[in-house]
Amino acid sequence: MPDPVIIATWPFGMTAVRKGLALLEAGKAALDAAILGAQAVEDDPEVGSVGYGGIANAVGVVQLDACVMDGKTLGCGGVAGVENVRHVAALARRVMEETPHVLLVGEGARLFALEQGFRLDTLHTPESIAEWEKSRPRAGREGRDLAPEGTFPSDSHDTVTVLALDQTGSLAGVCTTSGLAHKRHGRVGDSPLIGAGLYVDDHAGAGGGTGVGEEIVRVCGSMVLVEAMRAGKSPQEACELAIARVNAAAVRRGVHPARVAFIALDPKGRTGAACTKGAKFEYAVGRKGKSELHTARETG
Ligand code: GLY
Question: pTM of the predicted model, to two decimals?
């Protein structure tokens, strides 16, 4: 069996990797490690794009998106546009395990959280309110927003996507985010969508995305890269292929370069990562008791 491995997006993914690696090395399942790792980021008020302290949307409300997938069974679950629930990755797991469904949204997801015993909470911190006030869309002379509809928080990072391989050789993944800052109320990105922000299959590999969700959804980015691994590509080649697909779509729409990155992990424990030009994407990898930050290759 391979050594356990865990990979996560962005420098704040290091928190998830450290926590998850300890669990994997203690023999825990990939899904438990990925979710508990992601949850440590959801709990961190200093991460302004995930969970507690996530940046609010255009009307000042924090709406979270998340999904999980188990590579052994292809079991998956997601929640989108959820308010007042901090641990949305764990909530997505409940959707997977406790309902016959794959995706719950908005008020339905919040009611399900209550039914499942999750606590309702404010997701704002004094810092996230100040950040929103500083950068929020302001009305122009004709009442139109002057700011673009959806940007990233000022630290330029967004989703934490975590992929894990456990000691039994099984893969799992998690995405969790507050999405684009100032996004339209009700806007949903790639992160809760299986095949877009995340896809995991023990018979092929695990892939996940971060960046402008619309560009990832448009090409079913994570599905593309997992299918590339199924066809024999390495995780690195698969990520570069998915980025090439995003770039081609962005050129056709006149928005090149899009701002997107992907990570991948295969059943042998090999990892890969790639991003669009200028995305300056860093990711964390943990294996053999060590966690390291890497910089992804930019693909034009
Ligand atoms: N990738 C996060 C989002 O677009 O919402």
Answer: 0.95
